[in-house]
């Protein structure tokens, strides 16, 4: 008799629903996890509304996943049933030069990962293509750890690659203190000497930013870039991470950036950024980070294991998913929502 499970699936463009599907059996080399938690991310909305030629449907959502080993396919060794793991989600080919050095997020032959072309973690079970994509959680709570796999990984990668400019006396500006931003503050305080300046439109999120260790917190506006300049002694930010990604936030990030600074555009708000010789600070760099490397994934988990970072999680059920996505889209979540199937 075929076992079934609940899964949150995109069944047609713009439409998701909870359905019953077969529990997947691991083929040789694969691993099945019983899902502990799956985080809700803004990029899920892109998948939900994408052209089905890009993401074949039906598709189970969820790229921010943790769980416990439930079954392994032939040839898989070294895993113990019941142990907790996090799922690294940018699945590369595993054979190209970039994958060989751990950079599967920029694989030369980029494929799909869970929740983006392959069934993801918003289900009771998830199938993992290769044990190398599992990161041991040890004693960490899998539900609370789920946001580390995207919100934590992406911000860690953005900050870790900017460490050469985050010298003592430098400043980092974080725009958007939500699921990613609340972890970015903690990561910056843990691994860099930079002064942290948080920017958000909502007073409660600015309060949250201060609680998490931001040195300064302010609202955007016509004078926001000038205030940041004042706080940095006129130098501007060494690092600016835009976790919103609309026209206004990207313009603010660029205006706040100092000479030799790095602007990381992480938010998927659909904005554009005009860049010219005269409007871009000298020797500044602009990048669009995608997730992070496999080694980044291990390192962000170790930060959590050391108690230096801790995701703030709101646990939800399948019944809460639609309303929670709506709240997330309006910026009304504090921290990260995690589906506990």
Notes on the structure:
With 341 residues, the protein is α/β, with parallel strands linked by helices. The chain folds into two domains: 4-150 and 292-339, Medium-chain alcohol dehydrogenases, catalytic domain (Quinone Oxidoreductase, Chain A, domain 1, Alpha-Beta Complex), CATH 3.90.180.10; 153-287, NAD(P)-binding Rossmann-like Domain (Rossmann fold, 3-Layer(aba) Sandwich). Helices cover 25% and strands 26% of the residues. The strands form four sheets. Strands 3, 5, 6, 9, 10, 17 and 18 form a seven-stranded mixed beta sheet that branches. A six-stranded parallel beta sheet has the order 13-12-11-14-15-16, with helices on both faces. Strands 2-1-4 form a three-stranded antiparallel beta sheet, with no helix packed on it. Strand 12, helix 6 and strand 13 (216-218) form a beta-alpha-beta unit. Helix 4 packs across helix 5 (181-191). The radius of gyration is 20 Å and the shape is globular. The protein starts with a strand and ends with a strand.
What's the short version?
By secondary structure, this protein is of the alpha/beta class. The chain has ten helices and 18 strands.
Distinctive features:
single chain, alpha/beta, Rossmann fold, 2 domains, six-stranded parallel β-sheet, 10 helices
Write the layout of secondary structure elements.
Elements: E1 4-12, E2 15-22, E3 31-39, H1 42-48, E4 59-60, E5 65-72, E6 84-87, H2 97-100, E7 113-114, E8 117-118, E9 125-128, E10 134-136, H3 142-145, H4 151-160, E11 171-175, H5 181-191, E12 195-199, H6 203-212, E13 216-218, H7 224-231, E14 237-242, H8 247-256, E15 257-265, E16 285-287, H9 294-305, E17 313-316, H10 321-329, E18 336-339
Parallel strand pairs: 7-8, 11-12, 11-14, 12-13, 14-15, 15-16, 17-18
Antiparallel strand pairs: 1-2, 1-4, 3-5, 3-9, 3-18, 5-6, 6-10
């Amino acid at each position: 008799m075929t076992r079934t499970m609940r899964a949150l699936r995109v069944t047609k463009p713009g439409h998701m629903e909870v359905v019953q599907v077969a529990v997947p059996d691991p083929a040789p080399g694969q691993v099945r996890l019983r899902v502990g938690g799956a985080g809700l991310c803004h990029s899920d909305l892109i998948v939900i509304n994408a052209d089905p030629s890009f993401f074949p449907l039906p598709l189970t959502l969820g790229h921010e996943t943790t769980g416990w080993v439930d079954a392994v396919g032939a040839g898989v060794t070294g895993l113990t049933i019941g142990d907790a793991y996090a799922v690294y989600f940018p699945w590369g080919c595993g054979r190209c030069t970039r994958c060989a050095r751990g950079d599967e997020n920029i694989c030369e032959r980029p494929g799909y990962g869970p929740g983006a072309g392959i069934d993801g973690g918003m289900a009771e079970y998830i199938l993992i293509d290769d044990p190398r994509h599992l990161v041991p959680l040890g004693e960490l709570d899998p539900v609370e750890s789920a946001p580390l796999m995207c919100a934590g990984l992406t911000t860690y990668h953005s900050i870790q690659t900017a460490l050469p400019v985050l010298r003592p006396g430098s400043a980092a500006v974080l725009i958007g203190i939500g699921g990613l931003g609340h972890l970015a503050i903690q990561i910056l305080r843990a691994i860099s000497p930079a002064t942290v300046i948080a920017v958000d439109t909502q007073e409660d999120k600015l309060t949250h930013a201060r609680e998490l260790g931001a040195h300064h917190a302010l609202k955007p506006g016509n004078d926001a870039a000038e205030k940041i300049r004042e706080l940095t002694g006129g130098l501007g930010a060494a690092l600016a991470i835009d976790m919103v990604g609309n026209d206004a936030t990207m313009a603010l990030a660029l205006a706040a950036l100092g000479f030799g600074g790095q602007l990381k555009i992480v938010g998927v708000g659909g904005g554009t950024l005009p860049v010219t010789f005269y409007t871009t600070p000298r020797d500044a760099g602009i990048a669009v980070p995608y997730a992070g490397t496999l080694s980044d994934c291990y390192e962000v988990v170790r930060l959590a294991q050391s108690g230096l970072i801790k995701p703030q999680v709101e646990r939800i059920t399948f019944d809460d998913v639609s309303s929670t996505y709506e709240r997330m889209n309006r910026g009304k979540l504090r921290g990260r929502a995690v589906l506990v199937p």
